[in-house]
């Protein structure tokens, strides 16, 4: 195939030739223009010379009028009139010539007009002089001399104007000479430059055409290489026409090597043959009609064809385009693609089956979510402009949320977590969820939840999913309680191990290791000392150890040992031994069986509890004495509540009657004594009642119930309503919590605190009492206070009263302790002691802060 004929384009050559022709025309035009410019410059110089001649003639013309010879010829000649006419005609001709030469210069024309007027005056003056020349009269002679003077003045004016005209022409002549010289020197350079430029364009055009020829050769070679190495079948066909000028076939002009690879046809053998001869299956095939369609419409045609050649079944995607006098057919082997498509159809069908299974699995998963006891939620992150997580959106939650929080899943979906569960921002849960997403790790955490006055514990697992987090929550309240118990047991075990390892010699504790199968034992050093021996002084075994057992305790020891061996269990029990030195000691032993290296081994601890048992005996005696004291206290309570109050009530009754009957007859001194007696009786009654209240505060806490402190404060304010009204006190209350406690004790606690604040009010301002409440962790309580809860309610009762010095902080809570004289403020000194006992009875803590003259604060911590 002749690629040069097919692919060579002459467009570039036409463009270059056209540019060269344009440049040649441009060069000729510029040369012609330069010649024209030089001609104009020469004409302007010639014009200036003509003007100079005209000015010279004008100078000679008016200068002649100034000469004596001309005047004599004009005045003395008989033909003076003809001479004057000729002279005047000469001047007109000169002026017309100058006017014609200077008609393109308005300034010069204006000067010539002035000269023309002066010449007219000169002619008139000469004519007047000619008329007076024949007279000899003296007067006329004087007039003639004067007339000559006038002529001289006129000539002077003409000379001046002529000088201006001449100077202007000299200036123009100088400019025109410079222009002519410039044009004269520029013309050869310009012509040479244009000629050089034209030559350069022709050279560049030649180089361009030569390069294009080289590129065409390179492109031809490149195209041959591409067609030889491409994976596509590329054939070029030219049509074969019949007598009716219809295409009956195509002759193969070019075929690349892919024909050999795919069809087993040699490209060289194909050249010159017809398409139907080489590919007979195309006769009547739709592909052949596509060839005809492309050639006839001169548009691209794309189609797919399936064929079988040399036993191979193949698919091709063909693109037919017109090229020169024929068509170019490019066929891409898509056999692998078709096979992949068939495979994809099979995979699609399999995927559809899997999708059906997935739907079943989804339904199964939905049923699982409904049936499991775990709460499952999925949150989507909500981020701010800095890409920081500020909230979450609830995307999914199963039905198990309802029994816990009362929420309905469909109602909380697509809502923000800050609206549905705002408490997560206070409990640290939000930080756990953010940590799971930012660090892409599974985060496990525990979270408490208050429900119906009870703290429920939940264990949660947060796992990142996309830009969100899936949270699985299960209730672990029972596990938490068991874990706390186990923790306490572990703490005890740690303590025992620490004692065993670090202080056996000083704590009277020993340890042992007994191998059941071989009946050998290993005793600790202190165990030997407890038995009265030095360490490792004898070889121990169960038979050897039995010799130390007190004869009276031997039967129970043998029974316990037999039970332990048969059941592989060991219970703690106490027995007596007789040491090597004959002393009787009480030992408490405990152990457990385990498997060690395939042997049954008991590990145990013994403790010398001789002093403990003896101390227990002493304690039993002390308890008996305490019970006697309690009985006496009970008796005192009965006496205080009945026997003491009965005569006191009678004393108060008689005091009241005496005051009613004899009060007006008392002297002033007697009246004062009577008031003191009355006050002393009232104080005695208050003291007895407060002592009874203090002694009746029960620490057994068997009657604890859910107490709303808001109801307690409402009841206290009703009881103190008159005092509050009389003192015009202001009471500011926070929303108070519910606690587990005894209602009347809480009422007594706050009644005492409010009564104290009202009693010890400032004398300069109205009393103001504030009660604030918040939930805090147990870390805020004093370290020496043994906490029983993770969280506490902190209640602060503040007043603006007289306050107190903080060095008396502990003293004010003691019984009968007062900071003021009874003459200043009434009271028994038991009220705050009662408050402290009530708070401690509720496993709480109370302390006070104050400043003299600036009020006091009572801070109460109660378990949440």
From TrEMBL:
Cite the PAS domain residue spans from the record: 219-279, 524-568
Q: Which Gene3D superfamilies match?
A: 1.10.287.130, Histidine kinase-like ATPase, C-terminal domain, PAS domain
**Which reaction does this enzyme catalyse, per its entry?**
ATP + protein L-histidine = ADP + protein N-phospho-L-histidine
Q: Is ATP-binding among the key words of this record?
A: yes
Its EC number is 2.7.13.3
What positions belong to coiled-coil segments? 609-639
The chain positions of domain Histidine kinase read 639-864
Question: What enzyme class is recorded for this protein?
Answer: transferase
Give the source's domain of life in one word. Bacteria
Q: Which SUPFAM superfamilies match?
A: ATPase domain of HSP90 chaperone/DNA topoisomerase II/histidine kinase, Homodimeric domain of signal transducing histidine kinase, PYP-like sensor domain (PAS domain)
Extract the InterPro entries matched here: HATPase_C_sf, HATPase_dom, His_kinase_dom, HisK_dim/P_dom, HisK_dim/P_sf, PAS, PAS-assoc_C, PAS-like_dom_sf
| Keyword terms | ATP-binding, Coiled coil, Kinase, Membrane, Nucleotide-binding, Phosphoprotein, Transferase, Transmembrane, Transmembrane helix
List all membrane-crossing ranges: 186-207
The record places domain PAC at 571-621
Molecular function terms in GO for this entry? Answer: ATP binding
Keyword match Membrane: yes
Q: What is this protein called?
A: histidine kinase
Q: What is the lineage of its organism?
A: Bacteria, Pseudomonadati, Bacteroidota, Flavobacteriia, Flavobacteriales
């Amino acid at each position: 195939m002749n690629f040069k004929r097919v692919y060579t384009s002459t467009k570039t050559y036409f463009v270059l030739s056209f540019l060269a022709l344009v440049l040649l025309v441009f060069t000729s035009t510029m040369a012609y223009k330069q010649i024209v410019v030089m001609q104009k410059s020469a004409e302007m110089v010639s014009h200036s010379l003509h003007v100079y001649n005209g000015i010279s003639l004008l100078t000679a013309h008016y200068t002649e009028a100034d000469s004596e010879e001309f005047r004599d010829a004009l005045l003395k000649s008989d033909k003076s009139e003809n001479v004057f006419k000729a002279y005047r005609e000469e001047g007109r001709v000169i002026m017309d010539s100058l006017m014609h030469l200077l008609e393109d210069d308005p300034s010069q024309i204006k000067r010539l007009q002035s000269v023309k007027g002066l010449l007219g005056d000169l002619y008139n003056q000469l004519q007047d002089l000619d008329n007076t020349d024949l007279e000899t009269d003296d007067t006329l002679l004087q007039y003639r001399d004067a007339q000559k003077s006038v002529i001289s003045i006129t000539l002077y004016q003409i000379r001046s104007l002529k000088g201006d005209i001449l100077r202007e022409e000299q200036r123009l002549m100088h400019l025109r000479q410079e222009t002519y010289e410039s044009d004269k020197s520029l013309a050869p350079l310009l012509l040479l430059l244009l000629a050089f430029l034209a030559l350069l364009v022709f050279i560049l055009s030649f180089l361009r055409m030569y390069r294009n020829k080289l590129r065409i050769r390179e492109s031809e070679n490149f195209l041959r290489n591409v067609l030889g190495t491409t994976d596509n079948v590329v054939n070029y066909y030219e049509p074969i026409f019949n007598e009716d000028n219809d295409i009956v076939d195509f002759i193969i002009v070019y075929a690349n090597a892919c024909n050999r690879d795919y069809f087993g046809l040699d490209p060289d053998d194909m050249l010159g043959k017809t398409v139907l001869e080489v590919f007979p299956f195309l006769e009547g095939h739709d592909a052949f009609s596509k060839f005809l369609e492309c050639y006839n419409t001169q548009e691209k045609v794309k189609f797919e064809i399936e064929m079988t050649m040399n036993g191979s079944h193949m698919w091709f995607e063909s693109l037919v385009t017109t090229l020169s006098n024929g068509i170019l057919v490019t066929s891409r082997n898509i056999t692998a693609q078709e096979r992949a498509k068939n495979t994809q159809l099979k995979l699609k069908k399999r995927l559809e089956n899997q999708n059906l299974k997935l739907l079943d699995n989804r339904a199964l998963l939905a049923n699982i979510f409904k049936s499991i006891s775990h709460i499952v939620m999925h949150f989507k992150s909500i981020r701010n402009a800095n890409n920081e997580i500020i909230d979450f959106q609830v995307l999914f939650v199963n039905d198990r949320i309802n029994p816990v929080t009362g929420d309905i899943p469909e109602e909380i979906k697509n809502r923000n977590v800050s609206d549905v569960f705002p408490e997560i921002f206070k409990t640290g849960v939000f930080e756990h969820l953010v940590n799971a997403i930012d660090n892409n790790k599974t985060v496990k955490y525990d979270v408490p939840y208050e429900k119906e006055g009870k703290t429920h514990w939940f264990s949660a697992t947060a796992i990142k999913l996309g830009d969100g987090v899936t949270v699985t929550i299960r209730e672990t309240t029972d596990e938490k309680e068991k874990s706390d118990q186990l923790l306490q047991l572990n703490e005890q075990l740690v303590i025992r191990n620490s004692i065993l390892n670090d202080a056996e010699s000083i704590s009277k504790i020993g340890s042992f290791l007994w191998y059941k199968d071989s009946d050998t034992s290993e005793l600790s050093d202190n165990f030997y000392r407890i038995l009265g021996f030095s360490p490792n002084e004898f070889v121990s075994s169960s038979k050897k150890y039995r010799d130390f057992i007190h004869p009276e305790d031997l039967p129970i020891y043998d029974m316990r040992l037999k039970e332990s061996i048969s059941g592989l269990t060991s219970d703690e029990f106490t027995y007596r031994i007789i040491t090597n030195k004959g002393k009787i000691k009480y030992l408490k032993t405990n152990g457990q069986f385990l498997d060690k290296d395939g042997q049954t081994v008991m590990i145990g601890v013994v403790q010398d509890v001789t002093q403990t048992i003896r101390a227990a005996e002493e304690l039993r005696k002390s308890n008996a004495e305490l019970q006697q004291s309690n009985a006496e206290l009970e008796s005192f309570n009965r006496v205080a509540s009945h026997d003491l109050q009965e005569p006191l009530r009678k004393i108060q009754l008689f005091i009241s009657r005496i005051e009613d009957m004899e009060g007006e007859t008392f002297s002033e001194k007697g009246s004062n004594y009577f008031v003191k007696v009355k006050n002393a009786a009232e104080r005695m009654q208050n003291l007895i009642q407060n002592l009874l209240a203090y002694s009746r505060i029960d620490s057994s806490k068997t009657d604890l119930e859910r107490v709303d402190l808001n109801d307690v404060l409402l009841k206290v304010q009703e009881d103190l309503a008159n005092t509050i009204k009389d003192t015009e006190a202001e009471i500011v209350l926070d929303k108070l919590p519910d606690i587990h406690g005894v209602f009347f004790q809480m009422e007594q606690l706050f009644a005492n605190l409010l009564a104290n604040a009202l009693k010890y009010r400032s004398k300069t301002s109205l009393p103001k009492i504030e009660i604030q409440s918040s939930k805090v962790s147990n870390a805020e309580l004093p370290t020496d206070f043994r906490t029983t809860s993770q969280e506490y309610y902190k209640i602060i009762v503040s007043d603006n009263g007289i306050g107190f010095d903080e060095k008396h902080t502990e003293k004010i809570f003691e019984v009968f302790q007062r900071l003021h004289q009874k003459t200043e403020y009434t009271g028994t000194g038991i009220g705050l002691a009662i408050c402290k006992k009530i708070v401690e009875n509720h496993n709480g803590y109370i302390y006070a802060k104050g400043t003299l003259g600036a009020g006091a604060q009572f801070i109460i911590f109660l378990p949440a």
